[in-house]
From TrEMBL:
Entry-linked InterPro entries: P-loop_NTPase (IPR027417)
Source species: Virgibacillus salinus
Species lineage: Bacteria, Bacillati, Bacillota, Bacilli, Bacillales
SUPFAM superfamilies per UniProt: P-loop containing nucleoside triphosphate hydrolases
Gene3D superfamilies cross-referenced by the UniProt entry: P-loop containing nucleotide triphosphate hydrolases (3.40.50.300)
Protein name (record): Uncharacterized protein
Source superkingdom: Bacteria
Length: 335
């Protein structure tokens, strides 16, 4: 199985969210790398990725941008190497300063202020997005929504044997807001899944609720579920992936809009199924205004993250390849 890429931390309207713990289920050895430099820890993690290349590795991307990593999980070895910044639970620390010492500790004051400004912008955008949802909620057929969801769950699970086990839910993100813009790894997650459902709809048309109910049904059937949260509103769900069923269901709307390209992929349009026909046209002016307003705050938030990223990178020190290799050897000898 190829390596699996996803996020466990993200920049959202709720601030920085962290879903790491659910992904450490069954991992006996959790190693956190300690050093003031995020770039050094990333380079060590990249080297560890190469060292364990014969294993299937879960690569945790970073909301700091494409130049950084949060860590790796090697599930078949029950082993994880993580940047200390994301670790909240029990772990073993490896202090890389023992082998790569530094006297220059980063001043993250400006970075933190700018990042908080980004979160504030996202929060304002979310409040406007909530108003947009109300337009569509007022036109929803909730009885039909319940019926349609039940029919879809039946389609997935009828004739499938129930597993006599306690299933686990892995909480993740498939992308987030970063210095590189709004990024995602949706094509990577979908590429080897046989049945992929592209959920179309509008704000407030029940996409997240639909997926939460599907997830609950699959867990009750004994199947582990990967639940990918929205990087705008982390209480919402953007994807449910059930590997035992070879099924992925995801919110395929802006800013992660895709369309079927192969057999086994299909669109499920909740707007067409559940919303009063003509709603888009009837409320066009209001919808356009709310859409433009909330997106302007999202763009503003991304700009703050980009400015924060510049400050963060200026604080980062340069380390030689010799320093990196010393840190890698020290890490491996400590495991």
């Amino acid at each position: 199985m190829p390596n699996l890429h996803y996020y466990v931390t993200g920049n959202t309207a709720d601030g920085l969210v962290n879903f790491l713990d659910s992904n450490l289920n069954g991992i006996d050895q959790v190693i956190k790398l300690r050093h003031p430099s995020a770039s050094l820890k990333t380079k060590v993690i990249q080297n560890l990725l190469e060292h364990y290349q014969n294993n299937t590795i879960e690569v945790l991307h970073s909301p700091l941008g494409s130049r950084y990593l949060d860590g790796i999980i090697i599930r078949e070895r029950s082993l994880a190497f993580l940047d200390e910044a994301i670790v909240t639970g029990e772990s073993t620390a490896i202090n890389l300063e023992e082998t790569v010492p530094t006297k220059d500790y980063p001043d993250l004051t400006d970075f933190n202020v700018l990042t908080q400004s980004a979160y504030d912008s996202f929060a304002k955008g979310l409040s406007i997005h909530d108003e947009l949802e109300e337009v569509y909620i007022s036109q929803m057929d909730f009885n039909r929504a319940d019926q349609f969801t039940a029919e879809f769950i039946s389609r997935l699970l009828t004739g499938v044997s129930k597993k006599d086990r306690t299933a686990h839910t892995f909480h993740r993100l498939f992308g987030t807001n970063t210095v590189d813009g709004v990024v995602n790894v949706v094509p990577h997650l979908n590429e080897n899944i046989e049945n992929v459902f592209f959920i179309k709809g509008r704000a407030g048309t029940g996409k997240s609720t639909f997926m939460k109910k599907i997830s609950k049904a699959c867990v009750e059937h004994g199947f582990d579920v990967e639940m990918y949260h929205c990087s705008f509103d982390s209480n919402s769900i953007d994807m449910v992936l059930v590997r035992d069923l070879d099924v992925c269901i995801f919110d395929s709307t802006d800013p992660h809009e895709f369309f079927p390209e192969r057999d086994g992929e299909e669109i499920v349009d909740l707007y067409e199924e559940l919303v009063t026909p003509g709603t888009d046209e009837r409320y066009e002016a209001e919808i356009n205004e709310l859409n433009n307003n909330y997106k302007s705050y999202m763009k503003q938030g991304i700009l703050y993250l980009q400015l924060a990223g510049i400050k963060f990178d200026k604080n980062e020190q340069g380390f030689s390849n010799t320093d990196v290799q010393k840190a890698v050897v020290y890490t491996l000898n400590s495991v």
